[in-house]
Amino acid sequence: MPKKVVLAYSGGLDTSIIIPWLKERYRTEVVAMVGDVGQSEDLGAAKKKALETGASACYVEDLKEEFIREYIWPTLRSGAIYEFRYLLGTSMARPVLAKAQVEVAKRTGADALAHGCTGKGNDQVRFELTYKALGPGFEVIAPWREWDIHSREEAIEYAHAKGVPIEQTAKKIYSRDRNLWHISHEGGVLEDPANAPEEEMWQWVVSPERAPNQPAEVEIGFEQGVPVSIDGQALGPVTLVERLNTLAAAHGVGRIDIVENRLVGIKSRGAYETPGGTLLVRAHQELETICLDRETLHLSQQLAVRYAEAVYYGLWFTPLREALDGFFAEAQKLVTGAVRLRLYKGNVTVLARHSPFSLYRTDLASFHMAGYNPKDATGFIHLLGLSVIPQRGDGR
């Protein structure tokens, strides 16, 4: 039996009831760890709640800067988008939270780690693979794989029985995750993909119909594939993301509703709000088009799929992810410049791309033939077409 357990704590429904459950089931000391990844919540209240419901201590770790610099920026630089739509907001946050949890466990002399992830989801894998990589000696407790609670409705009943204050009700039952990059919504009416999301479900990005009638423009600057400025003003990573979030959300940019393939093999329907991230991904893609040669760009696009899978599958602390980072660090050395975007009622339009390392040549791209001999194309086409000439089999 563990003597001291460090719980990754958010103050939401699942982790709120885990503290009394751990104390009752394991007769153990419980330490809560709250990771601040920009969830815009009262973390002081979360700490107070953890202590009032049985935790012996609660540590609030400020992870915002680390989250962006060490997780979001490398993922953005790689162009990773899971199944071409999901911008990996929850996937990127889990390893930084689990890493901090392991560090708290080592500091406090704990011998076990616990999380509130369900047995059906991806997050259990992301947390536990990080534990294995950074704290392989700790016992792991996953209550959703042990207890007799089988639904969020039953979890709500348990909370009421134990006197644990929660916000969720049978009518207000969405499971949400928020950080600097996004808000995710699961559960409720979303469990049936035939149902449209309820308008009141969205919490951040305004409806495009209610967005301003006048468009907004913004220029995002990059150095070696990493965002560094807005409209020519150099900004730190947290401020930069926050400003783009505010701008994009106000103009209805960043809502998506998707069905994705979970790592465990189950299809899952989720709705995501990623306002600033949507602008950053679009701007980075456009800058690559003028800064990368064709072969590097195409290989980057292929490896971006593998990078997205590695992040989604919880393989952050692995040789694979580190090796992919090595490729993208080299490939992105000249992805420096700025992209100007227009935002209007949920749409993003690219207005301009600039880079001191642009490979785009107007003299070659122009319809004017100066500096280009069109006769050279004859031999090129002939050689390229050798493989498509029908084979007659008679040597002719």
List the helices and strands and how they pair.
Elements: E1 4-8, H1 13-26, E2 29-36, H2 43-52, E3 57-62, H3 64-78, H4 89-108, E4 112-114, H5 123-134, E5 139-141, H6 152-162, E6 175-178, E7 183-186, E8 216-223, E9 226-230, E10 233-234, H7 237-250, E11 255-261, E12 267-273, H8 275-291, H9 294-312, H10 319-331, E13 337-344, E14 347-354, H11 362-365, H12 376-384
Helix pairs in contact: 1-6, 3-4, 4-5, 7-8, 9-10
Model description:
With 396 residues, the chain is of the alpha/beta class. The chain folds into two domains: 174 residues, HUPs (Rossmann fold), CATH 3.40.50.620; 156 residues, Argininosuccinate synthetase, chain A, domain 2, CATH 3.90.1260. The protein is built from twelve helices and 14 strands. Strands 3-2-1-4-5 form a five-stranded parallel β-sheet, with helices on both faces.
Task: Summarize this entry quickly.
With 396 residues, this protein is α/β, with parallel strands linked by helices.
- Give start-end ranges of low-pLDDT stretches: none
Q: Residue-averaged pLDDT, rounded? A: 94
Question: What is the CATH architecture assignment of the largest domain?
Answer: 3-Layer(aba) Sandwich
Strand order of the largest sheet: 3-2-1-4-5
Number of H- or I-type helical stretches: 12
Order of helices and strands: EHEHEHHEHEHEEEEEHEEHHHEEHH
Percentage of β-strand residues: 15-25%
**Overall geometric form:** elongated
Number of strands: 14
What is the fourth-level CATH superfamily of the largest domain?
Answer: HUPs
Could you give the distance between the termini? 81 Å
Helix content: 25-40%
Report Rg.
25 Å
Q: Give a quick account of the main beta sheet: strands, pairing sense, barrel closure.
A: 5 strands, parallel
